Amino acid sequence: MDIYNIVRQKIIELVTKRYKKVDQKTLNLITCEQPKNLKFGDLSTNVLMVLKKQNSEDLNDTKIYIINELKSISLFEEVSYIKPGFINFIMKKEVWYKVLCEIIKDINYGFKDLGLNRNVNLEFISANPTGPLHVGHLRGAVFGDVLARLMKKTGYTVCKEYYVNDLGNQIENLYETVKFHFENFNNNSKKKLSEEMYFGEYLKDIAKELINEKININDIKTVKEEIIYKVLNLIKRDLDNLGIIFDNFVSEKDIHDQGLLEEVLAKLNKKNLIYQGVLEKPKGKIDKNWKAEKQLIFKSTNFGDNSDRAIKKNNGEWTYFASDIAYHHNKISRGFDYIINIWGADHAGYVKRVKASLEALGYDRIRFDVKLCQIVNLLENNKSVKMSKRSGNFILINDILKKVDKDIVRFFMLIRKNDAHLDFDIKKCLDESKENPIFYIQYAIARINSLNNHFKKKKLYFSGFNEKSFNKLNSNEINLIKVLSLWPKVIESSVIFKEPHRVVYYLIDLAGAFHNYWSKGNLDSSMRVINESDIELTESRLTILNSLSKVIRSGLDVLAIKPMEKM
RNA sequence: GCUCUUGUGGUGUAACUGGAUAGCAUACAGGUCUUCGAAACCUGUGGUUAGAGUUCAAAUCUCUACAAGAGCACCA
Questions:
Q1: pLDDT tens-digit profile of A62-93?
Q2: Is the CB of A25 within 7 Å of strand B?
Q3: Which residues, at least 6 apart from A375, have a Cβ–Cβ distance to it below 8 Å?
Q4: CATH assignment of A3-91, given 3.30.1360.70, 1.10.260.40, 3.90.180.10, 3.30.1360.120?
Q5: Is strand B in 7 Å reach of the CB of A292?
Q6: pLDDT above 80 (res A287)
Q7: B35 C1' – A538 CA distance, angstroms?
Q8: Least enclosed by CB within 10 Å: which of A139, A306, A459, A502?
Q9: Distance A139 CA to B69 C1' (A)
C-alpha cells in the first residue's frame, strides 16, 4: 500500500473528470508526496499550481471542488490550502494503522511491479580477461549487481551479462607473456618481460599449469583459449567472493565467428552510412605515431556523434567499435528491449557513438541507457593509492576482501551517487563506530532484537495487536510509520533513475529515526519500549519496531548484505 | 580546441528529477548512561562557485564566466 500513490490517483481522477482535455504531460507533473517538513502535514499535492499553468481561468472553483471531494474520501483528518497553492493533508490515525498492517502482511512490502516483465539486458564490469579484477572494477560491479537485484524485485526480467573481450592485441600480449614464463620457468635466464607484457604472478601460475598439462605452447589457438579460460576463472572467483553471479558471458570472438560484423556492416552500407575515407587528426594530445590512413568509416555524425568512426582499420581488420556495434545488435536480436550498460567514466566519450549506431540500425524503439560510474579513489593511511598497469601496482579486489568483509565493501561502493567521485577508505570501513554508517544501520536491528529478547524473558504475553492497542500510540511512534511509508517511493525512484544509493541513504535515515526514538526512553521512562504495566502498548510498539526491522532487512537484502542479529 | 561529468557549511556529501524553513556525517562548543545495548541521543555555530534569465516556485532548467575531473585516430 503506497498511500501517496493512492491519493495521487484519486486526484488525477478528479482532474480528468473536470478537465476532459487535460493531457498526460500535465498529469505527470502532479505530485503527491510527504513534505520535507511535517508541519505542512502528512501529505501534500501541487495539483492546483500545475493546473494554473495550463488554464488561465480562475481556479477558485476547482480548488473548492478538489478539496471537498478529497474531504469526502475519509482518509483525512484535515485538508487545507496554503499560500503558493499547495493542498496539504493530515491523515486520520486509522490510516497509519492500515499502513502498518499492510507492512506486516506484505512480504514484498515496497516492491511494486514497475517492469511489467520488460526484458532487460544489464551489462557490467566486462573487464578484459587479462587478469583478476582490481579496485577499478569494484564500483561498477557492485552498482550493476544491486541495480539488477532492484530491477528483478520490481518486475523486470533481468539478464546480467559480462562481455569478454577475448580478441585483439591484448590477447596477443597475454599469450606472449605466458609463453615467456613457460619457456623461462626453470632456467634462471635474466630476460625481462617486455613493455607490452603483463605483470602479475598469476600468469606464472598459469604457465606452470600449462607445463603440467604438457600443452604445446606453439599451438597458439589452443593455448590462448586455455589462458582465457583460466583467467576468466580467476575473475569468476573474484565475482563469487563479492557475491555476484552473472547470467551470461558473451565472447567477442563468438560475435566475430558468427559473422555478425559483416551482417551489421551490410545493414549500414545499405543505408549509405559507410564510406572509405580518412579521419581528421585528433586534437588534444599530440601523438607522433599518428598517420593519415584510409579506412572504412561509419557516418556517426549523422546521429549526433562528434566525429565519424572507423569500422575497419587501414589493414582491413575490424575495429573494436565494429564488434561493439555487432554485440549490441546481437543483444537486441536475442530479444532484449531494454539495454543498460554500466561503464567507467573514462568511457563517457563512447556513449554517443554506440547510441548513434543503434539509431542507424533502426533500433529507435529499444531503450538504451548507459550509466557511468566515476572513479574510485582508494585511500590507505589517508593517502591516495595510485595504480598503474605498467608498474604492476594493482590493488586487487581479492586483496581488499582479505581486509574488509564483502558486505562492508558493497555498502561503501554505494555510499555515493554513481556520477560522484568516491573515496574508498579502508580504515573507515574497518572502523566500528558512528562514523561508519553500516554499523549504525546494523545496530538498529541488534537493538530491536534485544528488545524482543527482553520481552520474552520477562514472560510477558501478547494479547494480540489490534486497532485498539494501536490507538495507545503517540505521535513519536506514528512518525516511525511515516518514515516506513516512504519505502515504496525510495525503491521506485532507485529503479527509475537507476540510483541504488538511494536505498543506502534511506536505510541511514530509517536507522536514525529508530535511534532517535529509542533514546527518548533515556529521558522519559514512559517512552521506554517495554512497559510491564501496559502490555498492549508494549506490543504495539514492538509491532512497529519489528516492521522497521523488517524494512531494514529488506533494504539490506537489496544490497545483498547480511543483517547482524547481534553485535 | 571540442565533447561529457561535476561545483552545496571548514571537510565529505544528500535532496522525492522544479516545491514550502536545503537533510546527513564529520569538525567545533556544550549536554545526556544506578534503569529496554552510549557502536546511541539532544542543543548550538555554519552552506547551494559567481552573475544574468525562465517560473507562482530554482541547488535542480537556460546562457555567460570561473574551477575540478575524464575523454578526443588506432588500441581497449
A1: 899 999 999 998 899 999 999 889 999 999 99
A2: no
A3: A136, A344, A345, A346, A421, A422
A4: 3.30.1360.70
A5: no
A6: no
A7: 17
A8: A459
A9: 17
